[in-house]
Specification:
Layout: H1 3-18, H2 23-33, H3 35-45, E1 49-55, E2 60-65, E3 73-77, E4 81-82, H4 85-93, H5 101-111, E5 116-121, H6 122-130
Parallel strand pairs: 1-5
Antiparallel strand pairs: 1-2, 2-3, 3-4
Length: 132
């Protein structure tokens, strides 16, 4: 894990433990993630993150609204996957970013308990995941 990733992870753990974010933490996250973090905060402010949880397993995935003209939704796991183009192009292929704005929005919303909660069955979640 890179030094940047370690710093980011330390800040995230602190935010998650308190369920709040300080101005100092916001500054650090903005420094690490740049415009993607700005865009992520906008998505969270607009309540654009849904946490789709399955019962009885408790497994979940995030559905995050996009900012494009089409307002397409993207499914992601906050720490390691997003279905958006930027994830594959900027993160996986070019390794220019730590994560995309959808992952950041999902992680921030989950940390602050600001997700719109959606409950589904395990079968419904499995069907959703099979389409990714």
């Amino acid at each position: 894990m890179s030094a940047t990733s370690l710093v980011a992870e330390t800040v995230w753990k602190s935010v998650e433990s308190t369920r709040s974010v300080t101005q100092h933490q916001l500054s650090i996250l903005h420094f690490l993630y740049g415009k993607n973090f700005e865009r992520a905060t906008k998505i969270v402010d607009q309540r654009g993150v849904k946490r789709i949880s399955a019962d009885p397993s408790g497994r979940y995935i995030f559905q995050v609204v996009g900012e494009s003209r089409t307002k397409e939704d993207y499914y992601c796991f906050a720490e390691n996957y997003c279905a958006c183009y930027s994830f594959f192009y900027d993160i996986v292929n070019r390794r220019e970013q730590l994560c995309c704005k959808h992952q950041l929005a999902a992680r921030l919303a989950a940390s602050l308990e600001a997700c719109v909660e959606v409950k589904v069955t395990d079968e419904q979640l499995a069907q959703l995941l099979s389409k990714l």
